[in-house]
Amino acid sequence: MKITQRLRWLLAGGMLLLTLLFLLFLFFATKNFLDLWDRLQQLPIWLFYTYSALIVAVVLFSGWVIVKLVFGGPSAKTIPRQPPKPVTEANLTQEIEQIKTAGMDTANLQVELDRLHARKAAGQVHIAFFGDVSTGKSSIIKALLPEAGVEINLRGGSTRDIREYTWQTIAGDDLMLTDLPGRNEAEGTLDAAARDEAIRAQIVVYVTDSDLTRSQYQDVLELAAFGKPMLIAINKRDQYTKEEQTQLAQRIRSRFGEVASPNIVFIQSGGVEEILRIYPDGREEMVQRPRKMDISALSTHLQTEIDQRLEWLSQQRDTSVLNLVQEKLDTTRDDYRRSQAEKIVRSSTHKAILGALASVSPGTDLVIQGVIGTRMIQELCKLYDSPISTLDIDQFLNFSQGQLKKSIPLLMAVAGNGLKAFPGIGTVAGGLVHAVAYGLIFDALGHAVAHTLEQRGTLKVAPAAATFQEMLSGNLEERTKTFARLVIEQYRGK
Predict the structure, then answer these.
(1) Residue 439 — φ and ψ, nearest 5°?
(2) Which distant-in-sequence residues (6+ apart) come within 8 Å of 460 by Cβ?
(3) Which of 132, 442, 455, 468 has its CA 20 to 30 A from that of 394?
(4) What pTM does this model have?
């Protein structure tokens, strides 16, 4: 209580002192202002206005400078990002030519566009059948195209490749039916190939023979996201009564909601079924017999979609394919940049190691002030089409220096321990230790810059420096052995 009361008295005294000082300043400022005003009144009229205008100009200029410093300085300035170009065939063709000139492989991109042109010229409606193994995709196509000779395996898993079949409806429309591998029968990257084919289609039919499992539900959600008519065809209709069919359809629709709710039809794709035959003498035998076929609900629905929305279906197909090409183009460019960035970092790290071996007394500021570090950052920024000035590079390197100073002793110690793992070399000090340390530094610095450029599109100083510090200390033991081995090879080859 005594301490609290004493503190209150001190605060009260301090407040009183501040009040007196403020009043003294106010009185002094008022007195000087009034004296100045009286003197100005005695000046000639032209000098009075000239002096007043000068004061106003100084005040306005100071205010403008303050505003620019606070709100318009380099730290607050933002470079407006260019809006992405619309995904059109003309823009894609231009981008493909650009990355092709840069040395990237664009064959698959051109094939995709050529395939789109061919389908547009043929005027076919592309319908993709998707679904798990043994749900009846091939049986449905067999029912639509009995002359196609699609082999159906009763045990499931007959579809291993993407197969295309043409079908002409009663109304005269040319359709292309694509039989896609089921989710659990695809191997390697075949799932991705099936997804791409579904993107190229105008209508997607998802075939199942029961309620949707969790994985099937996710498949339908992904396919529906392409913005195309989505139809769920429930096969083996004879296993459900009319009431059960209604309940099953309601249950499936309730999982998607009204906005993304797909259309549902029940069909019987035919095929064969096994039955137990009991003879009069009591003998039992498992035999196969044809299953009744009825896909009228499916064909009627498809014909209705084509009759009512053929132009819209074609537009959706074109948009989806162009977006698919853009996605593949971006992937191609990203993969190319990663591989080239790795080459740049590896080459710069190699040069830094050679520089450390050649130097009599290498300094730890090489990464900050050296030509190698600056050149490496310039090449990485050029690779990612990120304009950068020497000032920006210096700012980043200076910012990273604070992180580096904390890590140099640790890097030197780790480098020395790493060299000890190699008989006959471990006791060599000086240049070898520095060379390993420089290898660790340049490797982390280059990968930090490349990572920041890939994630942000430009070299952001603070995030890049933070990533540099993280990579500098990550997996030190294994990386040290790698660079120690490289340093020893270079040392012995001198």
Answers:
(1) -60, -45
(2) 452
(3) 455
(4) 0.63
